[in-house]
Amino acid sequence: MDNTPKIKKESKHKIRVEFERAPLWVRIKSKFFSINFLKNVVYVIFRYILLIGVSYVILNPYIKKIFGSFMSPSDLKNPKVILISADPTFDQYKYIITENGYLQAALKTFLIAASIALIETLVCAFIAYGLAKFKFKGNSIVFALVVGILMIPMDAIRHSMMLFFQCFGESNPIGLFLSKIIPNYSNAWIQGSFIPRYILAFTGLGFKNGLFIFMLRQFFRGVPDELEESAYVDGSNTFRTFFSIILPISIPMLITVFIFSFSWQWTDNFYSDIFFTALEPPGTMFDIVSKMPDTLTELIRNHERKTMYQSTVVGTSTILVALPLIIMYCFLQNKIVQGVERSGIVG
Amino acid sequence: MNSSNTLPVRKRKRRLSLTTKKAISGWIFVLPFVLGIIMIYGPIVFKSIQISFVSLEGTASREVKEFIGFDNYKRIFEEGANFLEAIMNGIKSLVIQIPSIVIFSLFMAVILNQKMAGRTLFRAIFFLPVILSTGVIAATDASSNALANMESGQVDTNTGEAGFMSSMDLASMLGNIQMGSALVDIVVGLVNDIFDIISRSGVQMLIFLSGLQSISPSIYESCQMEGASAWETFWKITLPMISPMILVNAIYTVIDAFTAPDNNVMGYVQKLLRGGTSGTALGSPIEAVQVGHAMIWVYTALVLVVIVLVALIMKAFVFYQKRD
């Protein structure tokens, strides 16, 4: 059979070729009835089952909490109600938002978390750049310290950190120094405030900053040296190079670090527990969860299934804490993967 | 440390060499961290270790302390039988959990790295726990689960993770197919912990994903040209190329799992550090704080040993691609 293609029509830009194709049935058969295709189909089905299953496991607690948050006290007594409320109510939301001052707390937490996350991102980038691109004696020791700090459990230093920042008087070098130079020095400015968190952020010692420094260090090691060398040749010093060349090209990675840092500050309970004990009522997200609104406390006391109702309320406050993060995550989640994808973290 | 680098240079009164200049800028870059360590973190850690060596009994001021040597450490072994038990149990469960986290996250990263419909959505869901199961949210989840258990008297269906099948069913099913009871325990334990394992693998998945992205596509292309199957490519190319990431992730997982506030040992120590004495033979809250500090440093030392062991074992299998 002669099946060499024949040119039917020729114009300046287009060309029409006619050739005899195999019949449709043969084409379908060779495409869909091969072992390879079958293998692929099985693999794709298996993959989706796995992915959907794992997604279900991840999302299940949140879905349960969301449905649970709309349940009214009568639903909890009703044995027929498992997931979807028969008598939906917004009471839990209403009381937590009004009586616990959710909106003020959210604003306050946002300001604290965003500023700390910004400082941490920049400071960690600064430190990581020094570790990644400069050879100096002690580089490896500093890096070992970075990893070492990750290793110390937060609870090991909880007590002494509290003492350190509470007794900012004579008990520690900084306090001693301040009391020497400032007459009538008192440590009231630091007690129960969020200043310690900023101090920790500025020195790259905040929550899991070791991880950030590590990630950024690996990223900067992947940046070609030629880029900086050309900047030096053009007369830029190291700091200007860092701020006007290195930082702009590492924005995807910085966004990743920022998102991590922000969300860990937002849900923070370690520092809030230590430092914010003296804070006025609209506290942080920590207080939203740890404090029960008065009306609901009353309701829970009179309810037959106290613990169940209580966990419903706690679940509702958890949703309120998580909601802003989820909204932010929806917009920025692509950036997280992008940042890491481009980082080429290779040991 | 900074001055020691600059001093000899000043003596010579010459222009700084490029190496010295770079060293100085390097120190300036890491200066905030070094200062923080010397002025803040160092004293804090020192104080914490100090507390484990002193008696705080009867001290009105926090400053006056009586040095009592290793007494607090001795008391761990005398009275903290629960602690040793908690450590043994903790290590036992972590020995299984840590490899499964690393393997699971590698597996998932490989799948999430493939092109398919809905990849962005799945990635978003998989990294959600990194953002959400920390701090307050994780803490309240743990406490509300405990509440729910108290109420319903059930342990299995608490978090609903293994909702299709209770662990009793699974255990009897595995028993029926003549599986050894030790193995059944391991499998049932894993299934019960599945939520924990998945929600702890977020950061590791990210690190693996970045590692996978950095493998040059041309290597895979040449593999395909030579006729290697996907299976062979994974074992011969992906695994060796990603092995440095496996080391990093193994260490990160060890740190993360051992210092997680919700593991057994940490729960026990946390109670002591907050002055709780119930379930122990300790007399007063102050004693509990002292002994708690001693315990947590013993524990940290143990974690360090584990990390060194893991690093040494893994080092043998890590493959570094030589770059020019």
Q: Could you characterize the architecture of this molecule?
A:
The complex is a heterodimer of chains A (347) and B (324). Chain A has 17 helices and two strands. Chain A is mainly α. In chain A, a hairpin with a 4-residue loop joins β1 and β2 (15-18). In chain A, α6 runs antiparallel to α10, α13 runs antiparallel to α17 and α16 (294-301) packs across α17. The model of chain A has no long low-confidence stretch (mean pLDDT 81). Chain B has 324 residues and is mostly helical. Chain B folds into two domains: 1-51, no CATH class; 73-315, Orthogonal Bundle (MetI-like fold), CATH 1.10.3720. In chain B, 74% of the residues lie in helices and 1% in strands. Chain B contains 14 helices and two strands. Chain B has helices spanning 2-12, 18-51, 71-79, 81-112, 119-132, 135-152, 167-176, 181-192, 194-200, 202-213, 217-226, 230-259, 264-273, 285-315; strands at 54-55, 66-67. Residues 153-164 of chain B have low confidence and may be disordered. At the A-B interface, α2, α5, α6, α7 and α9 of A face α2, α5, α6, α9 and α10 of B.
Assign the CATH architecture of the largest domain in chain A.
Orthogonal Bundle
| Proportion of residues in extended strands of chain A | under 5%
Uncertain spans of chain B, ≥5 residues at pLDDT below 50?
Answer: 153-164
Q: What fraction strand of chain B?
A: under 5%
Total DSSP helices of chain B: 14
Q: What distance lies between the first and last C-alpha atoms of chain A, to the nearest angstrom? A: 59 Å
For the largest interface, the chains and their residue counts are: A-B, 100 and 100 residues
User: CATH class of the largest domain in chain B, please?
Assistant: Mainly Alpha
CATH superfamily of the largest domain in chain B: MetI-like
Secondary-structure-based class of chain B equals: mainly alpha
The main sheet of chain B orders its strands as 1-2
CATH topology of the largest domain in chain A: MetI-like fold
Question: Can you give the helix content of chain B as a percent range?
Answer: over 70%
Largest sheet: number of strands, sense, barrel closure of chain A? 2 strands, antiparallel
Please indicate the count of domains of chain B: 2
The rounded Rg of chain A comes to 30 Å
- Under CATH at level 1, the class of the largest domain in chain A stands as Mainly Alpha
